[in-house]
Design goal:
- The complex is a heterodimer of chains A (553) and B (114).
- Chain A is mainly α and 553 residues long.
- Chain A is built from 21 helices and two strands.
- Chain A has a two-stranded antiparallel sheet.
- In chain A, helix 4 packs antiparallel against helix 18 and helix 15 crosses helix 18.
- With 114 residues, chain B is mainly α.
- Chain B contains three helices and no strands.
- Chain B has one domain: Helix Hairpins.
- Classes of the chains: A mainly alpha (553), B mainly alpha (114).
- The interface between A and B is medium-sized, with 29 and 32 residues.
């Protein structure tokens, strides 16, 4: 437990120190910078995995490590809380971070200045948002993350990036204003911004103040939902993600999940399903918004020809699915949704990383002319470009690329036998199990809504399959097979890492699902979280002896 | 005092939203600035408005909110101002870059109706 306690603050401190080191190393020593960046992100992943392992080792409810920065106890100081949900999100962000850093070191980091420091700052913001136990620090870490993302989105410059960046920054500044209004209202009503403290005081709020509190929560939710790309507040996402450079787009996939995390964390704490008053406040709205987002994303996937647009709309599909699933509010659905969240993030990031490599193969194929020795005989079977079809060498890098694309497509579309299918199957199964309960209590979602969600999830999978098969045919079969793409080892390694992590999810699906189930159960009974945060005592210092030293030991 | 402050916040916020919806990038920046002023004043007003009670504990008075104004919103506002200032400055740079690329200050980068 004490080891976990000292680990808990590392995911924030480590990227911060790495940023300082990277700034000192400077832009001229690229190789050293690249190595330091890689080492820092890898260390971050190791720390996240250790936190996950320690949290899970503590038994069914999991350990809740509360780190009091500057030794101030909970409602007053800044608390860092590592629990089951945070640990899961940290590992997910760590994996995507390592993949992105590896991919960027192959060349993209040289497209502009300060790529690696910005990447570290973004990871710090993301990790901090997952770990903080305080609403105002959530805002601060959101801003840290966003400030880095503005720089990364513009990385490499160019008119499309600046144009979409302008919209992206404007909408996020607006969202920050909404976030602050929500914070102010909640502080006005509750007199506290510590999540645990607010959750503990929820039943004490007077009836006359309850409306005000709801308004504050809705304002906060608006800010989170803009980040999570709910329809109709997601027009910024597709241009911004497709215009930004490839590794940045892959990293941004995690950022939509930060919005989803904030919604999940806040709503399970403030408006748990078992509460006597304002239980699951706004769940029906969230459910409807999720389904509309899912609809919009699925149609977008079907309508897209370019691979990067397919990937961007897949992000919207997963956001919609998750919002709707969180709004259902059952333990089983929540558990399946968490599994789906991790898998969807890894798969979509890998798809984004593949975009440019695949495109590169294609453009080279088009410009390449005939080799002297590859000249066809007269009776050969020729293709459109008068090249022989039989006996054509299919280079291993293209074959590997095609295989990686196939795996990615299976994961994103949710086809068997990989983790994408397991996640979807678990989600659908949980929804069907949920049906009798909704018939009994039709006030929140109702059986029709559940059926609608099942239909939408299945058809979004179908649309993704159609669209990705079309893209695969276009990129690999129509023009491919003529020559090898110049695939760098680091790029291949990055894609491979994300896909292997996803394969690992499929192979170790049982422990993974057990973990998400325990997480979901823990989220639905928030009392342990509140007790752990508010019960954390300040350590005795050299000048100030502990107030109640007896209870600490 | 409450009415005046509420009016100020309302006018600032309304003007900000109206400007954000305008098609010129400079108007959008001014809108965001006005909106952040409104938000900052709003946060400040959440600490209940009192005059002549600085949040400094003096001997002879109990350290409760009956004798002092709430220092918390003031700290929050300070952080919010700093963050808002930095991001607005960044937005200005992007605005200039966009104008350099597209030759127009329309938010979509194409010359629309004036």
């Amino acid at each position: 437990m004490s080891a976990l306690l000292s680990l808990a603050v590392l995911p924030v401190v480590l990227p911060l120190v790495a940023t300082a080191a990277l700034l000192i190393i400077g832009e001229s020593r690229r190789r050293l910078g690249s190595i330091v960046n890689m080492a820092a992100t890898l260390a971050g992943l190791v720390v996240a995995t250790l936190i996950l392992w320690q949290v899970d080792a503590a038994g069914e409810a999991g350990a809740i490590a509360v780190y009091l920065t500057a030794n101030w106890p909970a409602p007053y100081g800044i608390t860092v809380v590592a629990d089951r949900l945070s640990a899961l999100m940290l590992v997910m962000a760590g994996l995507v971070g390592v993949g992105t850093a590896l991919y960027a070191s192959a060349g993209w980091s040289r497209a502009g200045s300060y790529f690696f420091p910005l990447l570290q700052i973004l990871l710090m913001g993301v990790n901090g948002a997952f770990l903080t136990g305080d609403l105002f620090n959530l805002f601060v870490f959101f801003e840290v993350m966003l400030a880095a993302s503005y720089g990364l989105q513009l990385h490499g410059s160019g008119a499309p990036r600046v144009q979409s960046g302008l919209h992206y920054i404007a909408i996020n500044l607006l969202a920050s204003s909404l976030f602050l209004i929500g914070l102010a209202v909640i502080y006005g009503v509750m007199g506290s911004l510590s999540m645990a403290d607010v959750a503990a005081r929820m039943p004490l709020v007077a009836e006359s103040d309850r409306g005000l509190l709801h308004i504050g929560a809705v304002m906060l939710a608006m800010a989170f939902l803009i980040k999570a790309a709910i329809w109709p507040l997601n027009a910024w996402l597709v241009p911004a993600y497709t215009a930004s450079s490839v590794p940045v787009a892959a990293l941004f996939v995690v950022m939509t999940k930060v919005g989803l995390y904030a919604i999940l964390r806040l709503w399970t704490l403030l408006f748990p399903a078992g509460a006597e008053v304002s239980a699951q406040f706004g769940a029906s709205f969230l459910f409807a918004g999720g389904l509309l987002t899912l609809c919009f994303g699925a149609l977008g996937v079907l309508a897209s020809i370019r691979l990067d647009r397919i990937a961007a709309f897949s992000v919207i599909v997963s956001s919609g699915t998750l919002l709707a699933a969180f709004a259902v509010g059952s333990i089983e659905v929540g558990s399946a949704a968490l599994f789906y969240l991790v898998n969807a993030t890894l798969a979509t990031s890998a798809l984004f990383l593949l975009v440019e490599v695949v495109k590169r193969t294609r453009s080279e194929t088009q410009t390449r002319h005939l080799d002297a020795e590859a000249l066809p005989d007269e009776d050969d079977n020729l293709d459109d470009n008068a090249l022989p079809l039989v006996g054509r060498a299919f280079p291993i890098s293209v074959a590997g690329l095609a295989l990686a694309f196939l795996v990615c497509a299976l994961l994103v579309a949710g086809l068997p036998p990989l983790a994408g299918f397991l996640a979807k199957a678990a989600l659908l199964q949980a929804l069907v199990h949920q049906l009798p309960a909704t018939e009994m209590n039709p006030s929140t979602i109702g059986p029709q809504g559940t059926w609608l969600m099942i239909i939408l999830i299945v058809s979004s999978g179908l649309f993704a399959t159609i669209s990705l098969a079309r893209a695969g045919i276009r990129h690999f079969w129509l023009k491919g097979g003529v020559l090898a793409s110049q695939l760098r080892a680091a790029e291949a390694g990055a894609v491979l890492l994300l896909l292997l992590a996803s394969l690992g999810l499929a192979v170790f699906a049982e422990p993974a699902l057990r973990y998400t189930q325990a997480t979901s159960r823990y989220l639905h009974a928030p009392q342990p979280y509140v007790d752990a945060v508010l019960g954390a005592r300040a350590r005795p210092g050299p000048a100030t002896p502990a107030i109640d030293e007896g209870s600490v030991r | 005092m409450e009415v005046v402050l509420a009016l100020v916040i309302g006018v600032l916020g309304g003007a900000g939203v109206w400007l954000i919806l305008r098609p010129r990038t400079f108007q959008v920046v001014m809108g965001l600035v006005l909106l952040s002023y409104a938000v900052n004043l709003f946060i400040f007003s959440m600490g209940s408005l009192v005059i002549d009670r600085p949040p400094i504990v003096t001997p002879g008075h109990a350290a409760s909110l009956e004798h002092y104004s709430d220092p918390m919103p003031q700290a929050l506002v300070l952080t919010a101002i700093v963050i808002g200032f930095a991001t607005t400055a960044l937005f200005l740079v992007v605005l200039l870059a966009s104008r350099g690329f597209s030759g127009t200050d329309h938010v979509d980068g194409v010359r629309g109706d004036p």
